[in-house]
Design a protein that fits this description.
mainly beta; Beta-galactosidase, Chain A, domain 5; 10-stranded antiparallel sheet; 5-stranded antiparallel sheet; 1 helix; globular
């Protein structure tokens, strides 16, 4: 384990990189946004982090970051809990995306660390981004033989919405090209239909005979809608295989393969947002040199269903614990 200063924010707060090691695997975690800066095997990095703290401050793609209080979109940027109306941060033309300003732009406390793990925490005050009640969030990263285990816990002081995720952007071919040739398998029988604003319609069609069927591996660019390639959709998981991570048995949600690396995603969450970098353009360069262009990366974000809190899902009472475990596991091809 190595811990070193990454930089200082304009307010003077110091941000650190904690490097976890397990054999030939390493993961770098920063306490700005509790973000994964890199995740590597034998020096091959699956996540294109930024070399400078200022890049994370100005980044609008949430690279590697922890997302909250509510991942994905809340339609209308309005939260209704027992008839009480809360106006949330509207940052996407009539929706609250990824919690508004969100946890990804916050400084997290580093509570403890060891050779292969680091635990961080953040307290979200009542009213932050419009969400009611204070919320204490803890996230532990553990690296074990290629598996980066993320264990989330959140405890609210009053009734509120909670739905967390990690927003790492991956490229499994060394970031030499886009990800359209990456082969992806997703263990899901249905997906969440969305409207033109990317808000769920309430329909959950079967994936069979559609371009959303990834029960067998397909290249990301193999199938398209009109003239457009790519995805930005939630898949409703129906897992078939499981693996043990410590005392936890988790279902395999998805597998992705590029030229160099294989990624497996395990989670206890019901959904997985598959995003293929459809809107990447400009901004800080990955590794400081790789330009962000359309389909340069993809994301597999474990989550509850988008806009779930508008339908009473993901609402927690005071003192009720939110728990999630998700694992990214990489290996060389």
């Amino acid at each position: 384990m190595e811990r070193k200063l990454f930089g200082r924010l304009d307010c003077g707060e110091e941000i650190y990189i904690t490097t976890l090691r397990s054999g030939e695997y390493t993961a770098e975690i920063i306490n700005y946004g509790a973000a994964i800066k890199s995740f590597s095997v034998s020096g091959i990095d699956a996540i294109g982090g930024y070399p400078e703290l200022s890049h994370y401050v100005t980044d609008d793609t949430n690279q590697g970051a922890t997302i909250g209080r509510v991942a994905n979109r809340v339609g209308g940027a309005v939260l209704n809990i027992d008839g009480a109306i809360y106006m949330l941060t509207d940052n996407e033309g009539g929706a609250c995306l990824h919690g508004g300003e969100g946890f990804h732009k916050k400084v997290w406390n580093i509570d403890s660390y060891s050779e292969d793990s680091v635990t961080m925490s953040y307290y979200s005050p009542d009213g932050e981004d419009g969400f009611p009640a204070g919320l204490q969030v803890t996230l532990k990263y553990t690296l074990r033989s290629g598996a980066l285990i993320m264990e989330y816990e959140a405890v609210p002081e009053g009734k509120t919405a909670i739905a967390l995720t990690n927003h790492s952007h991956f490229n499994l071919s060394g970031f030499k090209s886009d990800v359209l040739s990456h082969r992806v398998t997703i263990f899901a029988d249905r997906y969440t239909e969305i409207d033109g604003r990317r808000i769920p319609t309430g329909e959950r069609p079967e994936v069979a005979t559609t371009r959303f069927d990834f029960h067998e591996a397909h290249e990301i660019g193999e199938r398209k809608e009109g003239e457009e390639y790519g995805y930005d959709h939630n898949f409703i998981l129906s897992p078939e295989r499981f693996s043990e991570f410590g005392k936890k048995r988790l279902p395999l949600a998805a597998v992705a393969e590029g030229e160099l690396l294989r990624l497996e995603v395990y989670t206890d969450q019901p959904g997985l947002q598959f995003y293929t970098g459809n809107f990447l353009s400009g901004g800080p360069r990955l590794f400081g040199t790789v330009e962000k262009t359309k389909h340069r990366t993809f994301c597999l974000e474990a989550q509850t269903e988008p806009d779930c809190v508008s339908h009473g899902i993901g609402i927690y009472d005071a003192g009720e614990r939110y728990l999630q475990t998700t694992v990214y596991k990489i290996s060389k091809i």
